[in-house]
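Hi all, posting the design record for the shared folder.

TITLE: backbone redesign
STEP: 1 of 1
STRUCTURE INPUT:
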């Protein structure tokens, strides 16, 4: 056999059946190591990813007295004033009928309001964001929302809370202090988690 033919054969990759036991062992170890690295990376990504729908965002209002809210209710609950809910946790939800994430979260808010309506420790207060009153009213009626909601016609409430796009939700403690700001659609369990943590800390 010529040197050229020998070199050509030596450069031809071996098929799996032609690998030596030691070579096969190395391939298996390398493959297992690669799979392990990928698994570790996926676990790390999932562990650091915030739960969709309960994303807490920074706000200069956290730890401060909540801005005042007052106005006529959209759904026939008379005149509303935030201070009337002192002594309870208040979930202030900025929403709009045209907002798809708001539509997604509404059943969760209905569930939250129902559960805490029985315990009496928390209430929901809605604020319509850049939405015609009739559309906001229809949205509340069709979704089964029974909590008081205000039409922020001038945008002054949204400005005071720093809201730029619904849904945005603020959790207020019984003393009127802002505990958290959440962006995106919230869930019943997510809101319960914020309140449970606050209770455990005496907030």
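Okay, here is what came back for every position:
SEQUENCE:
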């Amino acid at each position: 056999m010529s040197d050229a033919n020998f070199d050509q054969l030596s450069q031809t990759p071996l098929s799996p059946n032609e690998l030596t036991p030691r070579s096969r062992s190395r391939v298996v170890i390398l493959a297992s190591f690669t799979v392990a690295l990928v698994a570790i990376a996926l676990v790390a990504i999932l562990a650091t990813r915030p739960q969709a729908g309960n994303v807490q965002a920074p706000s200069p209002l956290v730890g401060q007295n909540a801005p005042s809210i007052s106005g006529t209710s959209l759904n026939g609950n008379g005149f509303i004033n935030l201070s009337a809910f002192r002594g309870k946790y208040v979930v202030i939800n900025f929403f709009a009928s045209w907002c798809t994430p708001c539509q997604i979260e509404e059943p969760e808010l209905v569930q939250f309001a129902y559960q805490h309506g029985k315990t009496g420790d928390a209430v929901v207060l809605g604020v319509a964001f850049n939405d015609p009153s009739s559309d906001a009213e229809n949205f509340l009626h069709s979704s089964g929302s029974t909590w008081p909601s205000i039409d922020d016609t001038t945008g002054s409430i949204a400005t005071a809370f720093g809201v730029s796009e619904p849904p945005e939700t603020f959790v207020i403690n019984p003393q009127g202090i802002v505990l958290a700001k959440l962006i995106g659609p919230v869930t019943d369990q997510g809101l319960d988690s914020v309140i449970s943590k606050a209770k455990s800390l005496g907030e």
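COMMENT: The first helix runs from residue 3 to 11.
Let me know if anyone wants the other runs.
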